[in-house]
Design goal:
With 233 residues, the chain is an all-alpha fold. It is 74% helix and 0% strand. The chain is globular. The relative contact order is 0.10.
Length: 233
């Protein structure tokens, strides 16, 4: 009798455990994590040749940045400040955020494989941010998954000024700032949380000092605000 009861207890425990596992896998969060993980794997496979590529375009010069700083007997900080000043005076480009990330990556991540892996990681983050942005716009997770799956179709490698093969992830960083700001703006419009508004403004200002194209893209903010107000009307 005792053995039979123990078997029943074990069976009941196994059934309860199986039930909990089923509940977990039926959770929307777990499903989202699984789908996003598969999409990330798809992106990695699509861009795998990136990890075996060399330095192209401006990277051929910038990759020697650590050596340049050593030869000039300057600190990393002073070199970066001088670089920002030079770009502003010589080319009329005041993009301190972009220059800071560029010098930071080439100074501390001078291993080429690690450098390319950082770019790949940034592209994955860009894709996830774009997916979250489209989810907030269309109010549908599966539509956002479809958009995310479509992104690798537009990837291409060119032996020219290519934003994937070179430029220390400058455009990928810019994408993070811009879409991070837009996502926080959407959260603010939905929840009226002042913290998300501040986060959106901070990231917007960072994007302005990262790349000039951020100025005309300000139009996106007005479109999102207009559409949100129209939906509430």
């Amino acid at each position: 009798m005792t053995i039979t009861n123990k078997k029943k207890d074990i069976l009941n425990g196994f059934c309860n455990y199986s039930g909990k596992i089923n509940i977990i896998f039926q959770s929307n969060i777990v499903i989202a994590i699984i789908i996003c993980s598969l999409i990330c794997l798809y992106i990695i496979l699509s861009l795998l040749p990136l990890l075996h590529s060399g330095y192209y375009s401006d990277d051929m010069v910038n990759s020697s940045l650590r050596g340049q700083i050593a030869l000039d007997k300057m600190s990393y900080f002073n070199y970066t400040i001088n670089f920002i000043d030079y770009m502003a005076k010589a080319y009329g480009r005041f993009v301190p955020v972009s220059i800071f990330t560029l010098t930071l990556i080439f100074y501390y991540f001078h291993n080429i494989f690690l450098y390319k892996a950082i770019i790949l990681l940034l592209i994955i983050i860009n894709t996830l941010l774009f997916g979250l942005f489209t989810k907030k716009i269309f109010k549908d997770s599966y539509v956002s998954y479809l958009f995310m799956l479509g992104i690798p179709l537009f990837f291409q490698f060119r032996l020219y000024h290519d934003p994937i093969l070179s430029f220390a992830g400058q455009l990928q960083f810019f994408f993070c700032y811009l879409f991070g700001s837009l996502i926080f703006l959407q959260y603010y419009l939905e929840t009226d949380n002042k913290t998300t508004l501040i986060a959106s403004l901070v990231l917007f200002n960072v994007s302005l000092y990262s790349y000039e194209i951020s100025a005309p893209l300000t139009l996106l903010y007005f479109i999102i605000i207009y559409e949100e107000k129209r939906n509430l009307a």
